[in-house]
Specification:
The chain has 5 helices and 6 strands, in the order βαββαβαβαβα. It has helices at 20-32, 73-81, 94-110, 135-145, 160-176; strands at residues 7-14, 45-52, 55-62, 84-90, 118-123, 148-151. Bound molecules: guanosine-5'-diphosphate and magnesium ion (MG).
């Protein structure tokens, strides 16, 4: 998309059930209160203008990733559509953490020449007693992936806006380094 106008596509990736739609609905909820249209394509795509560090950015958040999609068409679309990616796993589900690594590798393969900003997101951090992936494992994984890391809870709305603001800051760093 057009970075000179601060328009960016941000794509949510991750296994089913990790909380992508829950995170997206928090993003969309902020738009609803401002009367914007956040119900494009059945609520899976939400556009909204956010102010981060006194500068606005218009983010289109895509929650269209379907890990079970047989056609692969939507998956390919997702892998190409993003100016930035939120790769989400659940801290209560080790398999989803391993899936996040696969997605990072897949993304690197598809977008070899692009330096796309990525945040590795460990969601459901409210479920402390069900934790299967430690915060240190998450951090270490992000170092290997060369991306940022954050733990969130969509349920408690903890760190969710830090995550969205963080991806906007990453996009700007990339824009300003060009
Ligand atoms: P998606 O398949 O990645 O879109 O996952 P969903 O957003 O549909 O969430 C799957 C389930 O996990 C739902 O029952 C959500 O209510 C629940 N969930 C999502 N995020 C959190 C969270 O941060 N904490 C807890 N406790 N549950 C969550
Ligand atoms: Mg979903």
């Amino acid at each position: 998309t057009d970075s000179s106008n601060n328009l960016y596509n941000v794509v949510l990736l991750g296994e089913n059930g990790v909380g992508k739609s829950a995170l997206a609905s928090i993003f969309a909820g902020a738009a609803d209160s401002m009367g914007s249209d956040c119900d494009l394509y059945g609520g899976e795509v939400c556009e909204q203008t956010v102010t981060v560090d006194d500068e606005t950015a218009t983010i289109t958040l895509l929650d269209t990733w379907d890990p079970q999609d047989e056609s692969k068409w939507t998956q390919d679309q997702c892998m190409h559509a993003g100016d930035a990616y939120l790769i989400v796993y659940s801290i209560t589900d080790r398999a989803s953490f391993e899936k996040a690594s696969e997605l990072r590798i897949q993304l690197r393969r598809v977008r070899q020449s692009d330096d796309v900003p990525i945040i590795l997101v460990g969601n459901k951090c409210d479920l402390v007693r069900c934790r299967e992936v430690s915060i240190n494992e998450g951090r270490a994984c992000a170092v290997v992936f060369d991306c940022k890391f954050i733990e969130t809870s969509a349920a408690m709305q903890h760190n969710v806006w830090d995550m969205f603001n963080g991806i906007v800051r990453q996009l700007r760093l990339r824009r300003d380094s060009k």
